[in-house]
Amino acid sequence: MEKVEVVVAHSDRATLRVGDVFVKIDSDQSNLDVEIEAIALAPVPTPEILWRKAPALAIAAVPGEALGVLGEPSPASPAAWAAAGLVIRQLHDAPLPPWPGRILDDIVAELDRECGWLISNAVLPADLVTRNREVAEAALRPWTPAFIHGDLQITHVFTSDDAVTGIIDWSEAAQGDPLWDLASLTLGHEEQLPHLLAGYGPADLDIIRAWWSIRSLCNARWLLEHGFDPNTPGAEFDVLRARM
């Protein structure tokens, strides 16, 4: 008998694993719609979709190991990180998906709202929030949209023998700033950025750092309200402190 493993569970969605099958249950079915279409369009290694029956989607496990987890050193080699960079470049160079992504005005509004919440609730020192809000400005500019994954966390890219075997969790794929993906993947793993860019190619480091600040500032409240701790070593609050 295969055991049921709870991969993640909160009020928005849950992911269960049984053997080599992942079952995703989402309160918003549009997320599953995006995931299915993005997997079909993305010219990179993706998991096989086994079946869908609302509100669930079953996906086959991909081989290999994730590049790492937030808050711990990555076990992957520099060559594996470079391979990930090359595959992400292929995604960003692909034709755009037919649906739009987030607009700049909405990102700015969310950022200012979350900064205000962090300060007014004394979650973080005001000077720390203010400094990261200043750093964030570099990313708040017009960009040429690319096909982005949208939630390219380090746990979502799998490799084996220094080759990418799969990229998972595509529900936030859209048109967007390609540097958001690079920042998401290297959040808390700044030391891996040169290896990633060895495969991806040149990128503006100030903008990547700005997206680190934005992701950390905007995610903090959600993490706290859903039982996660952004203050664990190497996680979002440490990313913010590194900008001081």
From TrEMBL:
Gene Ontology MF term list: transferase activity
Keyword tags: Transferase
Any single Pfam family the record assigns to this protein: APH
Aminoglycoside phosphotransferase domain span: 42-205
The keyword Transferase belongs to this UniProt entry's keyword annotation: yes
Family matches, as InterPro entries: AGP_Transferase, Aminoglycoside_PTrfase, Kinase-like_dom_sf
Protein name: Aminoglycoside phosphotransferase family protein
Phylogenetic lineage: Bacteria, Bacillati, Actinomycetota, Actinomycetes, Propionibacteriales
